[in-house]
Fold C-type lectin domain-containing protein.
Amino acid sequence: MQWSLILLFLMGQCCFIDCQLYEYLYIKEEKNWTEAQRYCREKHTDLVTVSNMTDMKRLLNISAGGQRDVWIGLYDSTDVTRTWYWSLPGVEFNESETNWNTGEPTDKGNSGSENCGFLYKNLTWADGSCRHKENFLCYDETNRTQKYHLIREKKTWQKAQRYCREKHTDLISGLKQLQDGELKNVMNSVGNETRLHFGLFRDTWRWSDGSSFSFRHWKNDLNNQQYNSDQCAMVKFNKNGSWKNNSCTVKKQFFCYDDKVILIKKKMNWEDALYYCRDHFHDLVTVTNLDEQRWVQEKAKKASTPFVWMGLHYACTLDLWFWLSDEVVRYKNWASDEQMDDCDMSGAMETGGKHRWFKRNDSEGFNFICSRK
């Protein structure tokens, strides 16, 4: 079986040309938001979803010289409960993993104005107005370490977020960072009653394609305004492509996207999944960086099995892991206990939790994710 799989790899290695898992398109026709959504769904996949600053730069690059304000796929769904998110893309908020201070969150008066999180010295949380000016915590992420920074410049939450993204990586986000001993050392210089901005916020904004990406890039302190019906988001083509809200009835140019990955909710072993993808689409999906990981794990959330197959396989005779697309396995997201390399093993992403990669026997039956040409 090993040699037949290696042959499949060699047959498919020259076919993968575009490594991007989704493509953005700038549509210069002017439509209101609902018309733009209908156009994108009929001719492409949907109005554009923006998952991080890398996506923002792509949008700015493809629309150079275009209209000043352009629709994206974010709208204010006022009939839903506000949802808590972390500022850092890819870090998911878990209701069962919180550290609220006693009596928090309060959302005083249920006015919908306390939409940002604050952090105390003891690392407990409180909610409050995003307009409050406080010192804040940024972090820098490298391949090996994370460096935390206490910024002693009082800013509103969104201005603090913008500062962190411009000069570091983002506001600190998620329990992994909050439980880091290095952060606790930084907090030693903070007063007991001091409140700091960190990367927790909530809103009622949703993406047109139903994805749960938490990335927001507002120009103003939008989260503190009273919620208005019929509000949609557009990109302003200024220096950093910040967003603003407007009535969905205004006619603007817009962005669509074409999705190049698809979740197949059939239960197959790895080799059958491989043949299925090559017969019907292109190949089993390849994940070569963190941005691609985030895009693929969004699909994996909707699977009906605990794992989804990817195009990652272990060649027992060659003693190496390889992607069927001929990409080198540089980016890795293995679960910490995944040490065993054995014959008839392939890579599968968990559909819940942290979406880590696991080494599973080829004979197991899972859903799988295909890439399109």
Notes: Residues 83-203 form one domain.
